Amino acid sequence: MKRNILVFGTIAGIIVSTFMAISMALMSCGSTDMDGGTGSMIIGFSAMIVAFSFIFVGIKNYRDKQNAGSITFGKAFLLGLLISLLASTIYVITWAVEFHFFLPDFIDKYSAMQIKQLQESGISGAALDEAIKGVESTEYNYKNNIFFFAMYTYMEILPVGIIVTLISSIILRKQQG
Fold this sequence. Notes:
Blueprint: H1 2-28, H2 38-66, H3 73-102, H4 106-120, H5 125-144, H6 146-172
C-alpha cells in the first residue's frame, strides 16, 4: 500500500504542480491577463482532474495486483486520501517555492484585482469597506503566516482530491466472493 501511495501520489503531485508552475509563470510574464483568474482556474482544475485520475489508477492497481482483486470502500478511501494528501503536499511545496522566490508580488496583484472587482460590483458604503478589509486581511495573512498560506493552498486542491477519492472508492470497491 505504501508503494502505491508514493508512486501514484508523486505522479499526481508532479503533474498538477507542473501545470500550476507553468500557468503561473506564463501569467506573471504577462502572456495571460489576470481576468479574475477564470482562465487559470479552468486550467488549474483541469490539471487537478487529470492528476487525480491517478487516485483511481492507484486504488485499482492495489486492488487488482496486491489485494487479490478485492477492496473495501474504507480501504479504497484511505488509499485514495493518502495519494491525494501526498499530491496536494507536493503542490503546496511547489507553490510555496514559486510564490516566495519567483512571484512574491502575486498576492498583491491578485488582491488589487479583487478590490477593483468589488469597487466595480456596485457594493458601496460599509459593505464595500468590510469586503475590502477582508481582502486586505487575507493578503496580509497569506504573506506573513506560513500556516495560513499552507492551509489556504491546501483548500485549493485537497477538496478535488477528496471528491475523486470518494468517486473512485465507490466505483472500485469490490468484496471477495
